[in-house]
Amino acid sequence: xxxxxxLENMVEKLERGxxxxxxxxxxxxxxxxxxxxxxxRYDVFKPYALAEKVLFYSGKLPPMEVLEILSxxxxxxxxxxxxxxxxxILPYFYSDLMIMDNxxxxxxxxxxxxxxxxxxxxxxKYSVQIVKxxxxxxxxxxxxxxxxxxxxxxxxxxxxxxxxxxxxxxKVEEKILKKEVLVNYQVISKKDYLLNLQDIFSIRGYGKYxxxxxxxxNKKGNLDIxxxxxx
Length: 231
Known about the structure:
Elements: H1 2-15, E1 19-23, H2 25-38, E2 43-45, E3 54-57, E4 64-71, H3 77-86, E5 98-100, E6 103-109, H4 110-119, E7 122-123, E8 126-133, E9 145-152, H5 157-165, H6 169-177, E10 181-183, E11 186-187, E12 200-203, E13 207-217, E14 223-230
Antiparallel strand pairs: 1-3, 2-3, 4-6, 4-8, 5-6, 7-8, 9-14, 10-11, 10-12, 12-13, 13-14
Helix pairs in contact: 1-2, 5-6
């Protein structure tokens, strides 16, 4: 219900000539459908060409800043998200994290950008500084993925996640019960959910993944699959 109110609010903002917040692909689909029904025209802001999270606007773009997270050591995607979560920065207020040549960027709405620059000094065990950059720094950005080849017995969510996390399926079930597993940007509640090709899923503390391909299936039904992990 909370998500329904959020999406209705995004549509109303656009109807008034304002902008949405950053929307994931499922939210984009639902908001775009509602806007089409009401005959409301809009444009789309993408931080980079293949961005998953985008912002809809029907007037001027809201004030935003490209931020670079400066660190002497490489930072993990999950550590950065953990700090944003700890500071109660909702994902609607910033873009995908973009890691390029061991440097992390994100686009944030102006009030959030100011807060991050002024208050975030550590990520994990490393000291960091967050600074504003020119938008053209992201012109040549492309997402980086690590390929994982897994040998599994089925497409069940708990089976695949246990291989990724290297834990028992009961531990995976705990994650699911805690609402820490999302498939296609929705909290998933069934451990026996069957993943489909191109499904995007994330595990809190372990990162984001795409079910890319089925490489091999033997007569007993065992599978070799390719999973891409966002770096």
